[in-house]
Amino acid sequence: MRENLAKAMGWANTEFFRRAQLPKSYTDLLGRKLFLFLLTLQGLVAFALITLGVMLRKSRTARKVIRPRIRQEIARAGVALLPMFIFVALALGFLVVGQTVSALAKFGATDYLGTTMVIVVVRELGPLLAAMLVLARVGTAHVIELGTARALGEVEALEALGIDPVHYLIVPRVIGMAVGVFSLTVYLIIGALVSGYLFAFLQDVPLTPGDYFKQIAGALGWLDFVLLALKTIAFGFFIAIVTCYHGLARPLRLEDVSRVAVRAVSQGVIVCVLIDALFILLYLVT
Amino acid sequence: MSGPENTLTIEMRDVSIGAIRDIGFIVLEDVNWSVAPGEFWAIAGQQHSGKSDFLMLAAGLMAPAKGDCKLFGMETRTLNEATLAERLRVGFVFEGGQLFHQLTIRENVTLPLQYHRDLPPGEAAREVAALLELLELTPLAEVTPANVSDNWLQRAALARALMLKPEVLLLDNPLTDLGARHRQWWLRFLDQLWRGHDWCGGRPMTLVATTDDLRPWQNAKRKFAVLRDKKFFPLGSWNEVASANDPVVQELLAAPVELTSSA
């Protein structure tokens, strides 16, 4: 409850360093940036662990309140974004997949189609694009909502009512975003592969739908499904952690909210790229 | 003091209080204060004298920078999830309400009940409806806080604090920005709570309210204190307040009462 937030606040207190005057030398500036990075990293890890702890410990607490909130967050980070994702899937299919298919067909390299599609769309572009879109659409809203709630004293009001702010405000958002990014990535990949074939078909590429999907299915291994699920859930989890951490874990004034939102989105992008790099290593190792 | 009936409701010994926004900035020092069950305190102080921080500490929402603060005989430092039941014996009304802006008034009032009590939906709805009716909030039940005037926001915050039928009610500047009619309603209703309202099973409630205007609180049975120069000064009854030579008390007694028409 209060102690959860207090711990996170303790780790989030980087304002002193951010607002200090610029150092005179580049090495000092570099040192400060490094120090700030480490403090932020420490804060994010602590916040993630606190959230996981609350999620597990309070899985049976106040279900009547938390379950509708989780459903609401899944709808917001998943279902509500479907129209946009259908559009993006079509665009991705036309722009990337269709062109790749026709280029490979020109060189008679259609045998590599499945592998190329799996690497480009299933492993890399699909999950990362889905994560970025959810970060932009929902992550930003998280920072603004939570930052405003913090600035207006609503977090203290929750504590006064004996309600754990991490349980009430963060846990539904984290679960909603993890489920949302995972589901949307699946839809995005399917949509991009289908629309890609349509684009190739319109260009008279000599490839039957059966061959196209057979090659893709042949190139997919069980590990692709497992790592895709893990990666997208990790994206959703950490985007929610970064955005909620910046919105909630430190006392804010209303004028700070926009600045913090920008910082949260930048850090969200960095975190997603780092997670992606980690999964590339996993693919290479396995 | 022995036995739960005799346990002091709130007890502060040599307490220093930090600001809620910056715990390192001390707003009050050497506070010694105790509240017995059934007392009604009005704590007066000028703007930025630390009234809100004082009340937050009393509610166990923050730890003292120094000294010991007890709630129902338990150190507030040790209040955690295991002692949640003690925390729920205290209701808190924030200055300005601090309602959850995305929820309607009904949802705001329902939230603590839904979170802490596993009641069937029908029963919970009946309880909430009864409380909204009692506080004349039924017409505003489906409205979000942004569309409600300050007078009613404050009353909705009172409803939220009363939902769990607390034994102690802490109110941060509850009469600020209220119209004359609402102010009268509040004073009358708080008096009913103090004497024992049916809503709380007729049990007398312990009340602590902060204020920057002492005059509306005039009542021989209330106890008064003032926050000045980072110190806490108990004043005693209204007679002692009225005869005090303290310039700050004089100023708080002379605070202009805004007689606006109520919404």
**Most residues in contact, chain pair and counts:** A-B, 23 and 30 residues
Number of strands of chain B: 10
Give the CATH topology of the domain at 1-89 and 212-255 in chain B: Rossmann fold
CATH-defined architecture of the domain at 1-89 and 212-255 in chain B? 3-Layer(aba) Sandwich
Query: Looking across the biggest beta sheet of chain B, what order are the strands in?
Result: 6-7-8-3-9-10
Q: Which structural category fits the helices and strands of chain B?
A: alpha/beta
Principal-axis shape of chain B:
globular
Order of helices and strands of chain B: EEEHEEHEHHHEHEEEHH
| Unreliable segments of 5+ consecutive residues of chain A | none
Structural commentary:
Chain A is built from eleven helices and no strands. Helices cover 83% and strands 0% of the residues of chain A. Chain A has one domain. With 286 residues, chain A is mainly alpha-helical. Chain A is globular, with a radius of gyration of 22 Å. In chain A, helix 5 runs parallel beside helix 8 (165-202). Chain B has a domain at 1-89 and 212-255: Rossmann fold, CATH 3.40.50. Helix content of chain B is 30%, strand content 22%. Chain B has a six-stranded mixed β-sheet with strand order 6-7-8-3-9-10, with helices on both faces. In chain B, strands 2-1-4-5 form a four-stranded antiparallel β-sheet, with helices on one face. In chain B, helix 3 packs across helix 4 and helix 3 packs parallel to helix 5 (150-162). The longest helix of chain B has 16 residues, at 180-195. Classes of the chains: A mainly alpha (286), B alpha/beta (263).
Fill in the keyword field for this structure.
heterodimer; A: 286 residues; mainly alpha; 11 helices; B: 263 residues; alpha/beta; Rossmann fold; six-stranded mixed β-sheet; four-stranded antiparallel β-sheet; 8 helices; 10 strands; globular; disordered C terminus
Topology:
The complex is a heterodimer of chains A (286) and B (263).
Chain A: H1 2-11, H2 15-19, H3 26-57, H4 63-77, H5 82-106, H6 113-151, H7 154-160, H8 165-202, H9 209-219, H10 222-248, H11 257-285
Helix pairs in contact in A: 1-3, 3-8, 3-10, 4-8, 5-6, 5-8, 6-8, 6-9, 6-10, 6-11, 8-10, 10-11
Chain B: E1 10-18, E2 26-35, E3 40-45, H1 51-58, E4 66-71, E5 74-75, H2 84-87, E6 90-93, H3 105-116, H4 121-134, H5 150-162, E7 168-171, H6 180-195, E8 206-211, E9 223-228, E10 231-236, H7 238-242, H8 247-253
Parallel strand pairs in B: 3-8, 3-9, 6-7, 7-8
Antiparallel strand pairs in B: 1-2, 1-4, 4-5, 9-10
Helix pairs in contact in B: 3-4, 3-5
